[in-house]
Write a structure and sequence with these properties.
- The protein is α+β, with helices and mostly antiparallel strands.
- Helices cover about 30% and strands about 45% of the residues.
- Strands 1-7-6-5-4-3-2 form a seven-stranded antiparallel β-sheet.
- Strand 6 and strand 7 form a beta hairpin.
- The longest helix is centred in the C-terminal third of the chain and has 28 residues.
Length: about 150
């Protein structure tokens, strides 16, 4: 299981505003390259993002589904990326004196990725999620600087 934490100079609500716009998903999630569609109910539990991952011309279409949604505190996603498999991604946001603290936890739960030993899988996941949190911070802090 990979865990990353980042302080952000914005409110938890601003972080969740970015995540609530499903069309922004490839802007902050490393590996997601384009959106195909966003369920009208996004980000309600059970709603899905229909995205592609990879680099053209090798793009794979898949989905990410909301399993739990408790804005502006927590969202749990089931990210599919076959043929690699599926991951459980938990993003938790806590207010702090100067903004908020965001923690992302990711664990491979199905498919070939779940068979890879954690000591091999976690280092690249940690690097990827550090960049994911940096991108999320750019968007949420930019939103805060613009006044929402």
């Amino acid at each position: 299981m990979s865990r990353n934490v980042r302080r952000m100079s914005c409110t938890p609500e601003e972080v969740f505003a970015v995540m609530a716009d499903g069309w922004l998903y490839p802007s902050w999630v490393v590996g997601a390259s384009r959106m195909r569609s966003v369920d009208d109910a996004w980000p309600a539990e059970g709603a899905q993002l229909h995205h592609s991952f990879g680099v053209w011309p090798v793009l794979i279409d898949d989905t990410t589904e909301v399993r739990e949604y408790d804005a502006p505190r927590r969202i749990v996603l089931r990210a599919r990326g076959w043929p690699m498999g599926e991951a459980r991604v938990v993003i938790e946001v806590r207010p702090s004196e100067d903004g908020c603290v965001v923690r992302i936890t990711e664990d491979a739960v199905a498919g070939p990725g779940a068979w890879i030993p954690r000591w091999i899988l976690n280092p690249p996941l940690h690097l990827r999620n550090a960049e994911t949190l940096q991108r999320l911070a750019f968007l949420a802090e930019g939103r805060a600087a613009r006044g929402g």
